[in-house]
Amino acid sequence: MPDIKHFDPDAALEAVVRLFWRQGVASTGIQDVVTATGLNRSSLYATFGGKQELYLAALRHYRQQRSQPMFRRLAEGERGLPAVFEFFGGLIEARCSGEYARWGCMVSNAQAGAENSDPEVRAVLDQHHQELRDALYAALVTAEAQGQLSAGADPGASADLLALLAYGVNLRSRAGADAATLRKTVTAALDSIGARAAA
């Protein structure tokens, strides 16, 4: 007889995402997961595997549900630099206010944690970085076509710079940096590629 789950795995996974995102994997034990989900250990293990498998599932879920929609909006827009401004504005707002303030980004937190030594975790982080960089590059190519970049600004190098800046925003906000300071830094970076005139 097949095993019938009496819970919603997606809802349980979302609870786990929030737990790992807020606390980090090193500070989260299985009992924390049990408490957050309301599930017993056997149900967790049968559905997701051990803690490492559960963390990987949560990290992939975060990337798919939270990061990729933002990247698609950035890459598929036709506004160029204003879309980049909007991306960073939304990032700073999400990191500094509301329900998830001071949590940082689950992916950025993993970049800075010991968990990044796991090859499967590293693969998710590398995929995320490539998607972020590609989305920024697409927006900057549009900006270049619309004459929004300063002379000599290279969309590829600028996309690399801005991807690193996004990680910096995530990590500094988690450490308590205020939104005004982060906006000032982002504006300076965007000004360096000719963004102010396009905003």
Which regions have little confidence, pLDDT < 50, spanning 5+ residues?
Answer: 195-199
User: Oligomeric form of this entry?
Assistant: single chain
H/E topology pattern: HHHHHHHHH
Q: What is the CA-atom radius of gyration, in angstroms?
A: 19 Å
- Quickly count the domains: 1
Secondary-structure content class: mainly alpha
List the helices and strands and how they pair.
Layout: H1 9-23, H2 30-37, H3 41-48, H4 51-76, H5 81-96, H6 106-112, H7 119-145, H8 155-174, H9 179-191
Helix pairs in contact: 1-2, 1-4, 4-7, 5-8, 5-9, 6-7, 7-8, 8-9
Quick summary:
With 199 residues, the protein is mainly α. The chain contains 9 helices and no strands.
Explain the overall architecture.
By secondary structure, the protein is mainly alpha-helical. It has a single domain (59-198), classed as Orthogonal Bundle (Tetracycline Repressor, domain 2). The protein is 70% helix and 0% strand. It has helices at 9-23, 30-37, 41-48, 51-76, 81-96, 106-112, 119-145, 155-174, 179-191. The longest helix has 27 residues, at 119-145. The protein is elongated. Mean pLDDT is 91; it is low at 195-199.
List key phrases describing it:
single chain, 199 residues, mainly alpha, Tetracycline Repressor, domain 2, 9 helices, disordered C terminus
